[in-house]
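Q: Second attempt. The first request was missing the SMILES, so the protein and zinc ion are both included now.
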Amino acid sequence: MALDLAQQSEPDEAQVTAAVEAVISAGRMAAARHWVPATSGNFSARIDAHRIAITRSGVDKGALEAADILIQPLDAPLLPRSSAEAPLHIALYRRRPELGAIFHVHGPASTVLSRGVGTGTLRLQGWELQKALAGITSHEEAVDVPVFANDQDTARLADLVEARLAAPPHDARLAPGYLLAGHGLYAWGASPREAARHLEALETLFEFELSYRRFTP
Ligand SMILES: [Zn+2]
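A: Got both inputs this time. The predicted holo structure:
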């Protein structure tokens, strides 16, 4: 019987370890790209239907250790040392069981471009790199990125995000992420690998947009 219990606990432990390692790896990638200056940004990965691994507040995302990652139940109050933005992660995981990871950065391109376009929608079209986003097969497809006003009330913001995701546009695909004006980018995926690809694609597409707009009257 003891052996059975040990065998049952192993997969659970492996899932926790995999989620923690995915968060550490995503933080390193974003820090190397200078997208999480001065301990900003936060990263999370789903462990199972009820728990996520998520970065705690105030740590350098390029030097994360396992002790910096909280194991947060989705139906419990925020753990001590949680990030102020943890509720945005939790709300998305609760409402969208298909999400495996959510990464948030304060990258220069997403922060500046979002402030420039104001709230509403940033439409991407004509970029080959759009095809790095799940389900997009052509540069000709329109991809809409919702842009919200920045808000320190993250519960209110989470409701706005869900309302936009629940009402996709008729003439475009919704990006796997959104912008907070003057703040940064949230991107997600079905797995940590896909979330990282989406994060890198979107932040780079915003760099393209910024450069392109400088050359376009
Ligand atoms: Zn932030």
